Amino acid sequence: MKKIAVITSGGDAPGMNACIRAIVLTANQHDVEVIGFRHGFRGIVEDLNLPLHPNDMRLVSQRGGTILLSSRYPEFKQVSAAKAAAAVLDQHNIGALVVIGGDGSFRGAHHLDQYWDGQVIGIPGTIDNDLAGTDTTIGFTTAVDTAMEAIDRIRETAEAMARVFLIEVMGRHAGFIGLHAAIAGSAEGMLVPELEPQPKLADIADRIKQARAAFPDSSYLIVVSENLWPGGVENLARELTQATGTTCHSAPLGHIQRGGRPNAEDRILSMQLGQAAVHALLDGLSGHMIGVEQGHVVQVPLRLTFERDKPLDPRLVDLQLGLQQLNFASKVVKESA
Ligand code: ADP
């Protein structure tokens, strides 16, 4: 194999650039060329190719986002799109494709695998950490750091004014960022999709009223996962304000969680996975994700990464439920969708 292609697809995540660097440098050591395609799967179909040289890799690992750009390209679900991508890859004499992305991107990689003879490898790149078969994903710990820092800042003003805040964090349909940010930010409460039963408005309002009656000078921060409450935290804050008679503030953290320089952990993970992906390709592997479990690099069939659910760590759930002042949920942990 003389040429590898690489794309970043779906939601961008801090660390993707460090991963691209590791792929390019490792491939170069084995006399393999690397061609990037910009904008994910759309870039393959439209042949938006960008040859990547080791010399281009200076000063990229530090940067958030992705130098290859990304996109959402639902058309790739069509067989004709996968065949068109296969034809472009063949025109360039590419023997293997590395897809850095989340579960949608891995579905795309698996789809392409059915219509292309080359090798396909996935590297988990998503801040949501919602891929089974790997303990963590590129960008997750940086996003948690960013959320924690934002929570710390809200804490200072909330404490000065004894306010209640509902802080919305990302995660798509999983509570990994919510749980980790709640623990790191010492949140009084946490609402994540994996908890059962999901508390009703009246439960949350009652706990806030009781807590404020006992400790009126304290702040109360509740971390809420996106896509959990109908209408988001703005709506929840409005409903709670009515139900408690206390003004409840909403703070959706939004896309700041996606951007920023990757932390050391994400850079190291990205480079470890990028290097291992090239080694695996040289060994002939295809149709797998390169992930990490308990510090060891693992190879997991792509299908298993998006068809299986990934649960929150029950020990961390218990930690937060044990420490938080506002307990609205039982300890039953459901696996995330
Ligand atoms: P993420 O990879 O971060 O989960 P998306 O869910 O948006 O992001 O998926 C990224 C891209 O992967 C989509 O825009 C599309 O091009 C491709 N994709 C997603 N699901 C499929 C599928 N079932 N078949 C083929 N391609 C898919």
Summarize the structure.
The protein is of the alpha/beta class and 337 residues long. It has helices at 16-29, 40-45, 79-91, 103-115, 140-161, 176-184, 201-214, 232-244, 264-282, 302-307, 314-323; strands at residues 3-8, 33-37, 49-52, 96-101, 119-124, 164-169, 189-191, 195-196, 220-225, 248-252, 288-293, 296-301, 332-333.
Description of the structure:
The protein is of the alpha/beta class. It folds into two domains: 3-139 and 262-307, Rossmann fold; 143-258, Phosphofructokinase domain (Rossmann fold, 3-Layer(aba) Sandwich), CATH 3.40.50. Helices cover 41% and strands 19% of the residues. It is built from eleven helices and 13 strands. It has helices spanning 16-29, 40-45, 79-91, 103-115, 140-161, 176-184, 201-214, 232-244, 264-282, 302-307, 314-323, and strands spanning 3-8, 33-37, 49-52, 96-101, 119-124, 164-169, 189-191, 195-196, 220-225, 248-252, 288-293, 296-301, 332-333. The strands form three sheets. A seven-stranded mixed β-sheet has the order 3-2-1-4-5-11-12, with helices on both faces. A four-stranded parallel β-sheet has the order 7-9-6-10, sandwiched between helices. Strand 1 (3-8), helix 1 (16-29) and strand 2 (33-37) form a beta-alpha-beta unit. Helix 1 (16-29) packs parallel to helix 9. The two termini are 37 Å apart. Residues 9-11, 41, 72-74, 76-77, 101-105, 107-108, 111, 126 line the site of adenosine-5'-diphosphate.
